[in-house]
Design goal:
The complex is a heterodimer.
Chain A lengths: L27 H26 L13 H8 L7 E3 L5 H6 L4 H7 L14 E2 L9 H15 L5 E6 L6 H12 L4 E7 L2 E2 L2 E2 H4 L16 E5 L3 H16 L5 E6 L19 H9 L2 H11 L5 H23 L7 H5 L7 H18 L1
Parallel strand pairs in A: 1-2, 1-3, 3-4, 4-8, 7-8
Antiparallel strand pairs in A: 5-6
Helix pairs in contact in A: 1-2, 1-10, 1-11, 2-8, 4-11, 5-6
Chain B lengths: L7 E4 L1 H15 L3 E5 L15 H5 L4 E3 L4 H13 L3 E5 L10 H8 L2 H4 L9 E6 L14 H5 L5 E3 L4 H12 L5 E6 L8 E4 L11 E4 L4 E5 L3 H15 L4 E5 L2 E3 L3 H11 L2 E8 L5 H12 L8 E5 L10 H4 L3 H12 L2
Parallel strand pairs in B: 2-3, 2-4, 4-5, 5-7, 6-7, 10-11, 10-13, 13-14
Antiparallel strand pairs in B: 1-8, 6-12, 9-11
Helix pairs in contact in B: 1-7, 3-4, 8-12, 9-10
The chains are: A alpha/beta, B alpha/beta.
């Protein structure tokens, strides 16, 4: 099966163009644009890990290493399309137009973190594994029913493909031909459980065969492979040709979250090795160098601009007004039921008594 | 329009359900029906009979056999502008969809601070007493009243079924609409042809009385009415019978005003006693009417056992004798 789904690359770890198909579309400009998105995401991720260590935000879910998979796919979408992320996909949501401040508020345990700017269709991250895949087929189905050319993309990991909802979503997508891109980030581990314990399948892509869904396996650290593959899947969906399953093979450098120690279940020297051989940013840097288009001053300037954006957003996050307890009650129903209204009143009465 | 102009038809409850769906499908292009065998087969109980022919396969949709898939896709459709009615063939088969209900349908509004909402109606036949195979007869309304963010509605006759289903389909939040199997064809009531609402959260006084308030819902309405009639023929007492119709949110005013009038209460339901909705009714009485009570509140419920196979289901279901004994115990206290 692995022969049927070879891992496709456009630019390899050394920064060499290995597939000429898209040569004319790989401009210096595009390479720099994608690099900058990845740089921004990586710098934010590193900053968030630090903020967590300093106790300035709560448990944080890092994605470092998976930037190409998330960003290459996110830039293949257009405004009006729907994104269904997991909790590790804020590189994708940020790139698709989520507010950095709100993303930071998410790590302060705030509902605002789930609210994207108006006109940007990003669902609150799916927490129970694979459950969001069904919303992606449902929302895409709605677009199809209305006759628009909008599509949905849904992110999920290797472990998610063990869940029933993964299979139900692929089946619904297939049966109703929904304009959905099933975007799998196969980073090899579901928290501590490696892929070979998770499944006998050698690839995730082959699971699409059972549902007659065109499936492709790509190097998820190759931002151009991700971008072109996703773009093709999105175009298929827009044209009414139905869903595609993309397996983007990648690696998270860090642990599952800041609350977990990856060295307990895997050899972390693998991460160090991959930083040198397969890193998403480094390979674009190498590619640009090979094209004599890399300028250290450009990188420095971009880093400074991003640092400024991140620092000012952190200030905004930290100055953000405290949550109101009403947030807990206000949005359970459109109009609070009498039980909720009574509970609010009782809660307030005690608080008033305490503050007297 | 004056009252004499209203056309009415005698209908069974399932016809009332179907009439509401037909009316809403006709009125609003965003209304869809999704479920197993709801299309050409018209539903295993004929709830959707004729709707596939009338509205086509894009509106009345036979889905793959996957309950989580039905509810999960309905959430996606609802968030993106549609008004899906998801039919779960039997309530006892809804468990694979629990995650979709509990972590998504009921929470999306709150999680997104009102940005995303789920105007979804989940319909499911439920309850014992029709000699169905195992697992088909569960009565687990308490599992849903414990889910914050969803309303729980249970009609017991055609008039209420139509009015409540229309109200549910215009509610901005998810509603689980439980259809007691035994009521589907047990009686006919007059149902107006036109559109009308039975408000969610409003109970119905089926019979006024002075000595005790008996609260019930679903198929137990029939048994309770019968038991009360028999008892009133034997003894000089008068019982008030209230069909709660909505289990979340409960009709607090109706419960309180009845108990404050009669000073006694009994609650009848077929679900297991522990965690049953009777406990919430009991709480409302405690909170609103404790000092009006002349005797402890009686409960007549199913057992804390799985609903048994059908050879034993009559042993499981609250009998007329049990309902009468509970009422007498309260009155003779």
């Amino acid at each position: 099966m692995i022969d049927q789904f070879p891992m496709q690359q456009v630019i390899n770890g050394d920064g060499a163009l290995v597939d000429e198909t898209y040569k004319s579309e790989i401009t210096i400009e595009k390479a720099k644009e994608l690099y900058e998105y990845m740089l921004r995401a990586r710098m934010l991720d590193k900053k968030c890990v630090n903020l967590q260590r300093q106790g300035r935000i709560g448990t944080y879910v890092q994605y470092e290493g998976q930037e190409a998979a998330q960003i290459g796919s996110a830039v293949a979408l257009e405004q009006g399309d729907w994104m269904f992320p997991t909790y590790r996909d804020h590189a994708a949501t940020l790139t698709f137009g989520h507010s950095m401040r709100n993303l930071l508020l998410n790590w302060l345990g705030r509902y605002e973190g789930n609210v994207p700017p108006e006109g940007v269709n990003i669902f609150p991250p799916g927490i129970p594994i694979a459950s969001q895949l069904l919303h992606a087929t449902g929302a895409a189905w709605a677009e199809k029913k209305r006759g628009t050319d909008r599509v949905s993309i849904v992110y999920f990991g290797d472990g998610a493909t063990s869940e029933g909802d993964f299979h139900e979503a692929l089946n619904f997508g297939s049966v109703f031909n929904t304009p959905t891109v099933f975007f799998n980030q196969n980073n090899g581990y579901a928290i501590s459980v490696p892929m070979e314990k998770q499944m006998k399948s050698k690839t995730i892509a082959q699971k699409g065969l059972g549902y007659n869904i065109p499936s492709v396996r790509i190097d998820g650290n190759d931002v151009f492979a991700v971008y072109f593959t996703t773009k093709k899947a999105v175009e298929r969906a827009r044209a009414g040709e139905g869903p595609t399953l993309i397996e983007a093979v990648t690696w998270r450098y860090g642990a599952h979250t800041t609350a977990d120690d990856a060295s307990k279940y895997r050899d972390q020297s693998e991460s160090e090795k991959r930083r040198k051989t397969a890193d998403p940013l480094l390979r674009i840097e190498r590619y640009l160098k090979s094209q004599s288009a890399w300028e250290q001053s450009w990188l420095k300037e971009r880093e400074e601009a991003i640092t400024e954006e991140i620092e000012s957003t952190i200030k905004e996050m930290e100055a953000y007004p405290d949550p109101e307890f009403a947030h807990m009650f206000d949005h359970v129903f459109d109009t609070p039921t009498w039980t909720i209204q009574e509970q609010v009143n009782d809660h307030l009465a005690i608080k008033r008594r305490q503050s007297q | 329009m004056n009252a004499t102009d209203v056309k009415v038809k005698k209908m069974t409850m399932i016809e009332g359900v179907r009439d509401a769906m037909r009316l809403m499908l006709k009125e609003n292009d965003d209304v869809l029906i999704l479920g197993e065998d709801v299309g050409i087969n018209g539903g295993v109980f004929r709830a959707t009979e004729g709707l596939y022919e009338e509205f086509g396969e894009d509106r009345v949709i036979d889905t793959p056999l996957a309950e989580s898939g039905i509810i999960g896709n309905s959430i996606g459709l609802a968030v993106n502008g549609f008004r899906p009615i998801a039919e779960i063939q039997f309530l006892g088969f809804i468990y694979p969809a629990f995650n979709q209900l509990m972590t998504h349908a009921t929470r999306l509004r709150q999680r997104s601070m009102g940005r995303y909402t789920v105007p979804l109606v989940v319909r499911a036949p439920y309850g014992a007493g029709v000699r169905a195979p195992e697992i088909h007869s569960d009565s687990v309304e308490g599992l849903f009243t414990q889910m914050p963010g969803i309303k729980v509605v249970v009609p017991s006759n055609a008039y209420d079924a139509k009015g409540l289903l229309i109200a549910s389909l215009e509610d901005p939040d998810p509603v689980i609409f439980l259809e007691p199997l035994r009521c589907y064809r047990s009686s006919r009531t007059e149902v107006p042809d036109e559109k009308y609402y039975v408000d969610i959260g409003k109970a119905s006084v089926l019979k006024e009385g002075e000595d005790i308030s008996v609260f019930t819902w679903g198929a137990m309405v029939m048994d309770t009415m019968k038991a009360v009639k028999e008892l009133e023929e034997k003894r000089n007492i008068s019982c008030e019978v209230i069909d709660l119709r909505t289990l979340y949110p409960l009709d607090k005013e109706a419960i309180a005003s009845s108990v404050q009038k009669t000073g006694r209460a009994a609650i009848v339901h077929e679900a297991p006693a522990t965690g049953g909705v009777s406990n919430d009714v009991l709480s409302v009485i405690n909170d609103t009417s404790f000092l009006y009570l002349r005797s402890p509140i009686e409960r007549v419920t199913g057992f804390d056992t799985p609903v048994p196979v059908y050879s034993l289901e009559q042993e499981y279901l609250p009998s007329s004798a049990k309902i009468q004994a509970a009422i007498e115990k309260a009155i003779d206290f």
